[in-house]
Amino acid sequence: MENQKYTKELNVAVRVVHMACFLCEKVQKQLISTNSDQVKSKDDDSLVTVADWSVQATVSWMLSEAFGAENISIVAEEDVQTLSKSESSAILAMVVTAVNECLAEAPRFGLQRPDKALTTSQILNAISQCNSTGGPLGQHWVLDPVDGTLGFVRGDQYAVALAMIDNGEVVLGVLGCPNYPVKDDGLNRKSQQNLRVSEISSAEVGSVMYTTKGSGKSWMQPLIHRDMMFEWPNSAKLIRVSSVDDPALATFCEPVEKTNSDHSFTAGVANTVGLRKKPLRVYSMVKYAAIARGEAEIYMRFARSGYKEKIWDHAAGVLLVQEAGGMVTDAGGRPLDFSRGIYLEGLDRGIIACSGFKLHEKLIGAVYASWESSNL
Ligand SMILES: Nc1ncnc2c1ncn2[C@@H]1O[C@H](COP(=O)(O)O)[C@@H](OP(=O)(O)O)[C@H]1O
Ligand SMILES: [Mg+2]
Q1: GO annotations under biological process (predicted)?
Q2: Which end of the chain is more exposed for a tag (fewer CB within 10 A), N or C?
């Protein structure tokens, strides 16, 4: 069976994403506590990059340990150019600490920790090992260490996304969402109340969602509390898309930043289709998670013309939605093409993810009707 082919890969990937979430939570808490009033100062930026590089190093190291460095290809967002400069030595030291503190916890996640702390050059090596550009042949891991940088800085939603592409198709997806609780309606509740990390009760832990292609099943696990052991399946629950197909009742999500997606174009489409609710604006791939979990029905993303979407911003989320029963295509109704390197080449205008066929068909029709008069 197709989904049994990646059993070990999935098992390792899920555990590694849990570890990465643990790392991110620690850095995000530090960020919020040191600078609670100021959003996005220079210090915040450096903490964000600490999280990005540290997650990339951790994931790269753990995958190499599990499968052999020579056997794996990793496509990921970060490189080591900035980090290797002399003026980055303080950040580099923070990365080394964060990675080693995280790797020391590996046994809690059922993985092996290194015999001794990794050296700076081992960590730089692990980061720069993620230099693959993917493509149509062979297996490639695809990693976005911290997706939704702005959400991360603001104590809001962000995600750790790890997927695998095999011969051009996404076959495995894991999405860690540290601020998206497993409880029903976790996203709406949190967004409406605009809770900050410091205010979230420890019982409301985040979630990790995962799936494999062809399984027809997407799963969700809670993150584990401090000092708890991760034990497979770690209370995994099946998740499923919403059955709502009436546009008047549907919720649609989109990026918070209008530079990442044209809010006025999507408002026009929403109006044409008869969507009534206000858009749910959420940072990061948590939007895909919301569709897969049935908390929203539609995700629209229309970047400005000329912007090329990157595979790590979509791979894990797209598969989660599809295996939970939903549909994801470009605005022309064609599947996204993950086989052509780091970009979603050939993407027709924008991305539409839906809980079901009926809504999807209506949206494609509305985009078609609105396009000529838009400025995109
Ligand atoms: N002009 C643009 N248009 C569309 N997406 C963009 C963009 N600039 C950056 N992005 C991508 O949008 C992602 C965030 O998505 P969202 O807006 O849905 O939260 C970013 O991921 P990172 O935060 O990992 O850099 C980045 O890759
Ligand atoms: Mg991203």
Answers
A1: inositol phosphate metabolic process; phosphatidylinositol phosphate biosynthetic process; sulfate assimilation
A2: N
